[in-house]
Design a protein that fits this description.
Elements (H helix, E strand, L loop, with lengths): L1 H7 L5 H7 E9 L2 E4 H15 L3 E10 L3 E10 L6 E10 L2 E9 L2
Parallel strand pairs: 1-6
Antiparallel strand pairs: 1-2, 3-4, 4-5, 5-6
Organism: Lysobacter dokdonensis DS-58
InterPro entries: NTF2-like_dom_sf
Protein name: SnoaL 2 domain containing protein
Length: 105
Amino acid sequence: MAVRLLFGAHDKDAMLFSHVFAPGAIVTDRERLFKGIVSIVAWQRDFETRYPAHSFEPLRLARSARNVVAHMRVRGEFPGSPRKLSYRIELRDHRIVAMRVSEVR
């Protein structure tokens, strides 16, 4: 459910993220590190502000008990669009504790 909420909603806010991410969650987005919900919300708001018209298209999803790897095509008004990104997500108690975003070549 956390993964579905993460990719399915636009204009994500702190309330949504408090349900999706664990309090001490860590996100690494192409070598930039964001720790905790406040930092993760700021990262997401920055993206939403700079690129308000964007979409995620699922390409591949692999799931195990505690991990999800989602390959997505992200389209928007940003350089290099569309881009293929990999989201490596670690779950604990149905919440995201770690996520690494990287470009798929």
